[in-house]
Q: What sequence folds into this?
């Protein structure tokens, strides 16, 4: 993968960052292709939300896109040793994921986008509202982790 | 049909990229947000790489071609107003993101392994979205 292509980079930049960069490029390419093929903004929260409340004639591509996403991730987990290390781990309470999921669903819907819709598409197109949204969720995310570590305690 | 194949390929690329990036591990996302701890900057590279591909592609589509594939019109990506909803919603999203270390894409990507954590997250996310659509009468 990218490491064989760029041995120089691999010796100067930690490989995990390069995998991040390569993965990011694929994410950007997938977003661009989905946008070009549908004429819609392929932010994941929006794509998912409009499957929950479908509009006639605007559901099929959303289902195909998300099934492709799930299959693409699954294939990468199975075929790439680096990716295989980074799945959701066991160990944290399911309640944490339920609370997190509720906030993420509620927040992205109210705020009109998530890391992909606002963070990549909107910000990538230079939209001010998306840049503000991205700065806000980054900031509250950082504060939340900080508070979590100070109260509930680090590590969990 | 050709449109569905293109969208399928787009989804495969997106999902493969997420898994390759390592951001499907909530621990690494939290390590990015944990700026006072043992900071892991990878997420910055992921977003940088994604924007580095998306932004010039979008410019090319808009300025050079003016339409998408299969003759479809391009979406409007210009900025709307920075509304109270956008601010409050994004703030709440960030809190959930910080607690779980999972945003919508990685949550779905982890469904591929049928992990209970991912199923719980995605189900709760759906509930949260439906709640907004009910409360605020969104589309």
A:
């Amino acid at each position: 993968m990218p490491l064989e292509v760029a041995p120089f980079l691999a010796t100067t930049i930690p490989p995990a960052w390069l995998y991040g960069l390569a993965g990011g490029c694929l994410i950007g390419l997938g977003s661009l292709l989905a946008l070009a093929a549908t004429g819609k903004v392929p932010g994941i929260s929006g794509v998912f939300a409009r499957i929950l409340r479908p509009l006639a004639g605007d559901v099929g591509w959303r289902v195909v896109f998300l099934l492709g996403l799930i299959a693409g991730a699954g294939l990468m987990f199975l075929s790439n040793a680096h990716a295989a290390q980074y799945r959701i781990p066991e160990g944290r309470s399911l309640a944490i994921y339920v609370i997190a999921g509720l906030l993420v669903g509620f927040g992205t819907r109210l705020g009109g986008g998530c890391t992909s819709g606002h963070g990549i598409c909107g910000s990538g197109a230079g939209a001010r509202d998306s840049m503000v949204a991205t700065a806000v969720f980054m900031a509250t995310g950082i504060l939340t982790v900080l508070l979590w570590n100070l109260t509930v305690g680090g590590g969990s | 049909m050709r449109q569905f194949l293109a969208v399928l390929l787009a989804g495969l690329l997106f999902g493969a990229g997420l898994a390759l990036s390592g951001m499907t591990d909530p621990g690494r996302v939290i390590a990015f947000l944990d700026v006072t701890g043992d900071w892991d900057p990878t997420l910055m590279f992921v977003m940088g790489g994604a924007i580095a591909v998306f932004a010039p592609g979008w410019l090319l589509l808009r300025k050079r071609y003016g339409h998408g594939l299969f003759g479809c019109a391009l979406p409007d990506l210009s900025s709307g107003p920075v509304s109270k909803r956008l601010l409050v919603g994004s703030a709440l999203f960030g809190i959930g993101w910080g607690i779980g270390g999972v945003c919508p894409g990685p949550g779905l990507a982890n469904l591929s392994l049928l992990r209970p954590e991912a199923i719980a997250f995605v189900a709760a996310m759906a509930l949260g979205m439906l709640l907004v659509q009910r409360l605020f009468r969104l589309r």
Observations:
- Residues 2-136 of chain B form one domain.
